[in-house]
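Lay summary. Proteins are chains of building blocks that fold into shapes, and those shapes determine what they do. In this project we predict the shape from the chain. Here is one chain we studied, written as its sequence of building blocks.
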Amino acid sequence: NIEMSDLSWLDPLSACIIFTILNIGTIEILRNIVYRLGFNVRTLILMYEFLGALSFCTFHYAESIMFVNYG
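And here is the predicted shape, written in a compact code that computers can read:
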């Protein structure tokens, strides 16, 4: 019988891995949508910059989860 305290390290780690995979997938889908909408080059660069900043912020959130739980 496995106690919940034996698996306490698994929850933040699995949450961080799943969150990172979903983040990469979502940003890649949004990047493809933006590319296919046919914006001009200047707008496309700004949209890519926005998506990059968004992904950086969400990856920082996942890193903070790891830091809080593992030091």
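What the prediction tells us: Residues 19 and 32 are 20 Å apart (CA to CA).
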